[in-house]
Amino acid sequence: MKKRNFSAEFKRESAQLVVDQNYTVADAAKAMDAGLSTMT
Description:
The protein has one domain. Helices cover 57% and strands 0% of the residues.
């Protein structure tokens, strides 16, 4: 399986879900179509 590279924009949007919109990390991962290990 090829390793995915995530843009700075993706990382910023993911962080904003957790910080600004009170998503859990797991919920943010689902919303961004990424694995939980990607977010931690």
